[in-house]
Amino acid sequence: MQARQTLTHLQRLEAESIHIMREVAAQFRNPVMLYSIGKDSSVLLHLAMKAFYPSKPPFPLMHVDTTWKFREMIEFRDRRAAELGMDLIVHINEDGVREGIGPFSHGSAVHTDVMKTQSLKQALDKYKFDAAFGGARRDEEKSRAKERIFSFRTSTHRWDPKNQRPELWNAYNGRIHKGESIRVFPLSNWTELDIWQYILLEQIPVVPLYLAKPRPVVERDGTLIMVDDERMPLEPGETVQERWVRFRTLGCYPLTGAIESRAENLVEIIHEMLIARSSERQGRVIDRDQAASMELKKQEGYF
Amino acid sequence: MLDATSLRPEDTEAYLLQQSDKELLRFITCGSVDDGKSTLIGRLLFDSKQLFEDQLAALGQDSRRWGTTGEEMDLALLVDGLAAEREQGITIDVAYRFFASEKRKFIVADTPGHEQYTRNMVTGASTAELAVILVDARKGVLTQTRRHAFLVSLLGIRQVVLAVNKMDLVDFDRGRFEEIVSDFRQFAEGLGFESIIGIPLSALTGDNVISASDRTDWYEGPSLLEALDTARVGREQEELPFRLPVQWVNRPNLDFRGYSGTITGGRIRPGDEIVVLPSARTSKVERIVTYDGELDEAVAGQAVTLCLEDEVDISRGDVIAAADARPEVTDQFAAHLVWMSDQPLLPGRKLLLQLGPKQVSAQVTEIKHAVNVNTMEHTAAKQLELNEIAVCNVSTDQPIPFGPYKQEREGGGFILIDRISNITVGCGMIDFPLRRASNVHWQEIAVDKQARAALKSQQPAILWFTGLSGSGKSTVANALEKKLHLLGHHSYLLDGDNVRHGLNRDLGFTDVDRVENIRRVAETAKLFVDAGLITLVSFISPFRSERRMARDLVEDGEFIEVFVDTPLEICEARDPKGLYRKARAGQLANFTGIDSPYEAPEAPEMRLPGAEEEPDAMADRIIDELRRRGVI
């Protein structure tokens, strides 16, 4: 008898994610995949290509653009969507643009609320999506560890952490009333290491910002901020320096701290991560605004 | 444990290769905060170097604010994620945690222990292959330990680790440990566990958590991590007969038709004979398609797409199974139910039942007995409250393929959904199928439909008039009702416009509202049939599925579909209410026949040529048909 190989943990995680995506395609009329261009989104998109093969994924990608993303992210986004033949919706909160909302002028909290949270809700209402995939993982943050894979949202996009639907076996309850929606997290059970291992194993393209190279940065409140365009005002005493840096997470460039690194390929990144002593969300300014910050943001409709 | 902090760059690739070969074990921890459950998980994360510096710093901050361990780090705060939980010092909801050893990756479902959170524990247990049940060494086996063991067994977990915690507080006393393990074994007899491993440990100090402690030199068993590393994973599923519940029909173009789903049992190769249930059509597997190429073989746990040799009509929710080991198909079965809603379960109420991708209408026909979760005693019950467990008979409105839960979890575990609120209100585990005649129990009512109808010298029926606006439905129905009245029969006419003024005043003309409109009318008509009346329903009812739904509500022969078949041009020329004109002018959206479809009946009981005959003549034809059918 042939020696029997049990599925590896990555094979199991992959199968679980594919199962979730197929449930969404079958249960909802108008799903969308929220595409944030980061490594988790790259894995999500790759899994979607697998889940429906030889069909194309039966939903579009949507990027909520705050207008403050790294330029390399935008280039990568447009290139990937074109290569894979996916429909891409880009949504910008024009009200926020008109009012000139930005992280430098209004601070990270207002900027994130208007250009990300409100903008996302605007887009979901505009296109009447009844399900939206996101790349969030349970290992990222404490309140995410308790969120369901099918996460119910009211017609005003609110999450009620104390009143979640029980989720058993692989039976996902996607029933909703008109106007309500479900956020779906197929990567819930993946860890950061799983994501990188999978990217390496499957050779999934990621934004080059994850790899180290000399980039113009300023040091501000102990965080290295990359000067990605001319909109970044320098404070007295600040100078732009060329340093070898890379990013562990990608968001709005003024709110995303770089780390000093010489890791120029995936294996080196993973090596740095394995010996690292600080978690990936540390680079994000927004989580630290207040205690239980993510839980509050999620309740209000932030992913 | 997995400690890669000293890994050299040049070894990374080899290390990753080894890491990607790991197995995955999902387990659940049961116990309450007092037992040190959250501390134990915090300890596993902490000692396996899964925590980063900033998380540790945040933990230090949280410990000072909410901690219960004085100056020590309160590891429990790592896992209590919600603000309400930190404030109240309790665990409310299931949290999933991740860590790894050199051999395995682990997903831990951390669940609350109090009785009022039974549903959360059941949720966490549903996907676990092993349970760690915590006991405080000072307190021994308590009522809640028994409850946890019972629930774990109910959800089909066969491997148990009995973690006797806080051994440091009983001086690592061997006698105390052995007494507790023996108590537990005695009680757990009959719960069907395949293995029970007792481990003396201290989550607070770390003894016997990761490696053997020198403070328990009398203990020769594994540490907790060693037990987790050697537990059985996954293989059981592969031993089952082949099953694939179809999630999604994959049709990119006319040349390809595949059936996508996750294999829940066994293995499959091209050429294997399969059967599709419930239709019982057979075929052979032609190809196993994946993005990474076609496979020679696929096993339980894999998500694939199957192409068959024959054209078979298969839809979502059907099960493709090994032809020589078919699952049973039934619409009546006995099951263990766990009720998860604040609103009690009432037998007879219609619910939705979801078993894998299959969703059907269902009801609990009888509660055989409730089970006391603390004592496992059987008690009588008329309804079930939140967190109560019972053995019930369940009936579905169509036959479903299933496997007994004890043998195949994925094939026998279902959730129950409330039709109005859409909330998951319960879950169940199928025990065995029931034969219909001998097991259906209905609420008995002395005066029934037949009695009422007999008094009126008629058989109750629904005459469902469907057709375009202006086709003449209501005119014919009115003429018919007059004739029935003159003949001394009891009838009632439900007319679209009239009902929309009252019962359905809140509904518009979107597809969703149209469906609800018909559902309410159909249910009303059903009540009138139960009252013994000849019920005339005059509604455009443009969708086949809703007319089908109305038909299915009543017994065979009671539903008579009357299609008033008048061509659109004639209806539009008549335009008795001026609606077509408005619709054409764009002042009226979703108008049937103009910008909303009308799905004509395929096999109506009667088809009336509305453009050719007078209403009175058509009413006479219906009278003849009713006589022929014995309704009047």
From TrEMBL, chain A:
Which InterPro entries does the UniProt record give? PAPS_reduct_dom (IPR002500), Rossmann-like_a/b/a_fold (IPR014729), SO4_adenylTrfase_ssu (IPR011784), Sulfate_adenylyltrnsfr_sub2 (IPR050128)
Domain Phosphoadenosine phosphosulphate reductase, first and last residues per copy: 30-257
The pathway to which it is assigned is: Sulfur metabolism; hydrogen sulfide biosynthesis; sulfite from sulfate: step 1/3
Nucleotidyltransferase as UniProt keyword? yes
Among Gene3D superfamilies, the record links this protein to: HUPs
GO molecular function terms attached to this record:
sulfate adenylyltransferase (ATP) activity
Q: Which reaction does it catalyse?
A: sulfate + ATP + H(+) = adenosine 5'-phosphosulfate + diphosphate
Q: EC number(s)?
A: 2.7.7.4
Membrane-crossing segments per the record: none
Q: Which residues form the signal peptide?
A: none
Family according to the record = Belongs to the PAPS reductase family. CysD subfamily.
Q: Which HAMAP family does its entry note?
A: Sulf_adenylyltr_sub2
Please give the function described in this protein's UniProt entry: With CysN forms the ATP sulfurylase (ATPS) that catalyzes the adenylation of sulfate producing adenosine 5'-phosphosulfate (APS) and diphosphate, the first enzymatic step in sulfur assimilation pathway. APS synthesis involves the formation of a high-energy phosphoric-sulfuric acid anhydride bond driven by GTP hydrolysis by CysN coupled to ATP hydrolysis by CysD.
Q: How does it assemble?
A: Heterodimer composed of CysD, the smaller subunit, and CysN.
Protein name stated in the entry: Sulfate adenylyltransferase subunit 2
Protein source organism? Aquibaculum arenosum
From TrEMBL, chain B:
Matching SUPFAM superfamilies: EF-Tu/eEF-1alpha/eIF2-gamma C-terminal domain, P-loop containing nucleoside triphosphate hydrolases, Translation proteins
Care to name a GO molecular-function term for this sequence? sulfate adenylyltransferase (ATP) activity
Annotated signal sequence is: none
Xref: Pfam families: APS_kinase, GTP-eEF1A_C, GTP_EFTU, GTP_EFTU_D2
Q: What class of enzyme is it?
A: transferase
Q: Which residues cross the membrane?
A: none
Listed under catalytic activity are: sulfate + ATP + H(+) = adenosine 5'-phosphosulfate + diphosphate; adenosine 5'-phosphosulfate + ATP = 3'-phosphoadenylyl sulfate + ADP + H(+)
CDD domains annotated for this entry? Answer: APSK (cd02027), CysN_ATPS (cd04166), CysN_NodQ_II (cd03695), CysN_NoDQ_III (cd04095)
- Which stretches make up the Tr-type G domain? 22-238
Q: Which UniProt keywords apply?
A: ATP-binding, GTP-binding, Kinase, Multifunctional enzyme, Nucleotide-binding, Nucleotidyltransferase, Phosphoprotein, Transferase
Q: What positions does the entry give for ATP binding?
A: 467-474
Q: Which residues form the active site?
A: 541
InterPro entries for the chain? APS, APS_kinase_dom, CysN_GTP-bd, CysN_II, CysN_NoDQ_III, EFTu-like_2, G_TR_CS, GTP-eEF1A_C
Residue positions annotated to bind GTP are 31-38, 110-114, 165-168
Keyword hit for ATP-binding: yes
* Pathway entry: Sulfur metabolism; hydrogen sulfide biosynthesis; sulfite from sulfate: step 1/3; Sulfur metabolism; hydrogen sulfide biosynthesis; sulfite from sulfate: step 2/3
PROSITE patterns registered for this protein in UniProt: G_TR_1, G_TR_2
- Determine if Nucleotidyltransferase is one of this entry's keywords: yes
Task: Please report which protein family the annotation says this sequence is part of.
Answer: In the N-terminal section; belongs to the TRAFAC class translation factor GTPase superfamily. Classic translation factor GTPase family. CysN/NodQ subfamily. In the C-terminal section; belongs to the APS kinase family.
The UniProt function text for this chain reads: Catalyzes the synthesis of activated sulfate.
For this entry, the protein name equals: Multifunctional fusion protein
- Organism of origin is Aquibaculum arenosum
Q: Which gene encodes it?
A: cysN
